[in-house]
Amino acid sequence: MAMTSICVYCGSRSGHGDEYTDAARRLGRAMAAQGFGLVYGGASIGMMGVIADEMLAAGAAVTGVIPESLQQKEVAHAGLTELLITADMHERKRLMAERADAFIAMPGGLGTLEELFEILTWGQLRFHAKPIGLLNTRGYYDDLIRFLDGTVSEGFVHPRHRAMLTVSQAPEDLLNALKLY
After folding, report:
1. pTM, full prediction
2. 41 alpha carbon, distance to own chain's centre
3. Are 12 and 45 in contact (CB under 8 A)?
4. Is residue 106 within 8 Å of residue 10, measured between CB atoms?
5. Residues 80, 64: contact at Cβ < 8 Å?
6. Using CB atoms within 10 A of its CB, is residue 39 exposed (0-12), middle (13-18) or buried (19+)?
């Protein structure tokens, strides 16, 4: 299956440090340069807004998916190629997963973590066989990676399921790895 669109999970906040927004810009430029479209949470703020704006500036297709209840709180992006309004978070995540050929989690908060673990679980259960990446900017996910490795060594996660998650600090390297998945 050819990858044409990538779902990026990221925060509605930008975090502390320019490295996070720089990574979002680099990822957006790299995705657009390689012909990928973006599927994401639909907001114009935080990391979500940064990557969407970068992709749009490069002429790439950007699909936002946002629940009606968050349309005002997360400030839905008005300039997207397509903005889908859903009834709830469950429908949002389902549509994002259906429209994407791969997934990347950038640094983010609880929502980003929840989305990452849900899509990993869906892969483990064979609901999909799409590549999943973790953009580990500034070592943001180092502790999480150690934790996941511990779930394997303690016998709670099979090594092949841990191997579903591709990790890189460089957006370009992560995209190349996902294409080889």
Report:
1. 0.96
2. 9
3. yes
4. yes
5. yes
6. buried
